[in-house]
Design brief:
This protein folds into two domains: 64 residues, Helicase, Ruva Protein, domain 3 (Orthogonal Bundle); 192 residues, Vaccinia Virus protein VP39 (Rossmann fold). 41% of the residues lie in helices and 17% in strands. The strands form two sheets. The protein has a seven-stranded mixed sheet with strand order 5-4-3-6-7-9-8, with helices on both faces. Helix 1 packs across helix 2. The longest helix has 16 residues.
């Protein structure tokens, strides 16, 4: 099979199974098998695939045809300009979450201009692949960063990513804020499970390949925020701040939860203009 024939065959298989962006996915899967950039596929379209390459490509296409996420097949996902290893043990980082890192960096730089020191202490709850914690440590190396997760499997992936990207993060296993007790933090950040049960059941098939515990936030999706509002206060220092990702329609409800506990809140949109991050202090 020639490379160009493989791309056409792969696209046809994925279209038949109702996969969106079938051509794009087929191209990336072949590029992954051949370990080349996507544009090389078209420059070398007459290249004959070896027997092993063809076998691997067909296997990858069949996996994608069953709605397995492309990122799990390729074992990588881009986030904040960095390449992260991902597999079935962790949630796939989304571009929407980059605003959380960008807003944090903006707040840190603002603190520097106001005379606060460069060494700050930050905890990332529900770290998963470590995308948030690692990105923050990568772009602001002075930070003392801790990433926590209930899942030991997720922390193994996070450690692997930190090692690959050459950043220093301390990883702690435990439920909710338990790994943070007894310390005071400048920032606590989190992309928590915030999908309601009803919304989850209506998700695209690919979602069900990812860890359900990383999505489900209770009947209405707000359970994690209620726990945070009730328990996180004693963990923040006098100037401490909490930065949280939210669902696009949750800003009013989440702000209300925190305001009832005496917090001031501020909402920030993502690049599409949808409410995405809440700052509470």
């Amino acid at each position: 099979m020639k490379g160009i024939e493989g791309m056409r065959w792969g696209e046809a298989q994925l279209l038949e199974k109702g996969i969106e962006n079938a051509r794009f996915d087929a191209d990336l899967l072949l590029a992954g098998v051949l370990d080349v950039a996507r544009d090389r596929l078209y420059l070398d379209g007459d290249r004959i695939l070896s027997e092993q390459e063809e076998t691997d490509y067909r296997r990858a296409i069949m996996r994608r045809a069953e709605h397995e996420p492309l990122q799990y097949i390729l074992k990588r996902q881009e986030f904040m300009g960095l390449s992260f290893y991902v597999d079935e043990r962790v949630l796939i980082p989304r571009a929407d979450s980059e605003i959380l890192v960008e807003k944090w960096l903006e707040l840190v730089k603002q603190g520097e201009r106001q005379g606060r020191g460069r060494s700050i202490k930050v905890a990332d709850l529900c770290t998963g692949s470590g995308a948030l914690a690692i990105s923050m440590a990568y772009y602001y190396p002075e930070v003392k960063m801790v990433g926590t997760d209930l899942s030991l499997d997720a922390l193994e992936v996070a450690r692997q990513n930190a090692l690959r990207l050459g950043v220093s993060v301390q990883w702690r296993q435990g439920d909710f804020v338990a790994p943070l007790q007894g310390e005071l933090w400048d920032f606590i950040i989190t992309n928590p499970p915030y999908v309601s049960l009803e919304e989850y059941n209506q998700c695209a098939p690919e979602i069900f390949s990812e860890p359900a515990m990383a999505f489900l936030g209770g009947q209405d999706g707000l359970d994690f925020y209620r726990r945070l509002a009730a328990e996180v206060g004693p963990l923040l220092n006098q100037q401490g701040k909490l930065l949280m990702e939210i669902g696009w329609n949750q800003a009013e409800a989440v702000c209300g939860i925190f305001q009832k506990k005496g917090y001031e809140t501020q909402v920030f949109p993502d690049l599409a203009g949808r409410d995405r991050v809440i700052l509470a202090r």
